[in-house]
């Protein structure tokens, strides 16, 4: 199981353990299956890895939407430098932690006046996605008698290859088109707002270090160019993130060292020279939490249909949509899967693992080789720490919501 995500977790008498507790015991602790379990030690280790490899001048922000479980956000509050939120509820979760409000940024299209009021009152940084939003923020700040802290999210004039989700280069709902940013900056210089700087997010789930490096270089170039037209110094520069994690056996882990070197060159070269006042931020969701979590299900039925062995588990795509291939995969490939109580046992059979939903889409493992599993055994899906529960259609088929536990 080299390179298998299971290798990162501890064992207890041949059983997979999360946070040192075997998952069968965790199932009893949370009151049954299915459930999500996140490993606190792995979360801490992940931040430490990034701190070691990335230059110390670069600050780390956690994109809460990847996993908004309050305990996870609370734990990360003590480890990262800032939070990025994308809704009012995420903002409340972030502000319930010791993270100061001026280290919380609020991005995302379609922020309502009600959300903007909350953000202004809280004193978080609003990453403005359009000219209209900028006007509304200014007006609401005046109404509330509070000077809003703002940054401009830029829709760059380039896109990067190799990203699972590519943003920028053309028209999009995110950010202000880069060619329109100078005019907006002039307007904002005369408005009663605290203009801090820029934010560019160029894509997600990118496993190619070279393309992430290229994006970061181009974001810095673009920001320097726009800063020349800005009446104010840039004090905040959010370079986005998009660091991917391997989900299938075709994926290679991201080469973090290359990104670290590139970032060091940028912060100690052009950024220091042209944007000396900028607090430089990388914002990561998936890369911080994705590999730290598992989704645990129990076999409810084992059946053979015309020669094919099915394991039917008590979970499914309503909790972990991504593993079914219906969230961002063009071609369905299996996510890493294992039998929890025999985590290092040799595989002995090929089975199809399906969820309990009444739809053929609910496929969790297509012709996977596993040690034998019977009714009552626990099947674990890995890489479930990001975009799991909250990115799944929990209401579909009306089953109960699964537990989540941070161990
Ligand atoms: C979703 C999002 C992120 C996090 O993306 P990951 O791929 O999970 O790292 C970061 N920044 C913004 C603005 C986002 O919308």
From TrEMBL:
Keywords assigned by UniProt, alphabetized: Pyridoxal phosphate
SUPFAM superfamilies assigned: Alanine racemase C-terminal domain-like, PLP-binding barrel
Essential cofactor(s): pyridoxal 5'-phosphate
Pfam family membership, one: Orn_Arg_deC_N
Taxonomy, superkingdom: Bacteria
GO BP of this protein: lysine biosynthetic process via diaminopimelate
MF GO annotations: diaminopimelate decarboxylase activity
Catalytic residue positions: 358 (proton donor)
Domain Orn/DAP/Arg decarboxylase 2 N-terminal intervals: 45-289
InterPro entries: Ala_racemase/Decarboxylase_C (IPR009006), DCO2ase_PEP1 (IPR017530), De-COase2_CS (IPR022657), De-COase2_N (IPR022644), Orn/DAP/Arg_de-COase (IPR000183), PLP-binding_barrel (IPR029066)
Transferase among keywords: no
Post-translational modification N6-(pyridoxal phosphate)lysine, affected residues: 65
Protein name: Diaminopimelate decarboxylase
Species annotation: Micromonospora phaseoli
Native organism taxonomy: Bacteria, Bacillati, Actinomycetota, Actinomycetes, Micromonosporales
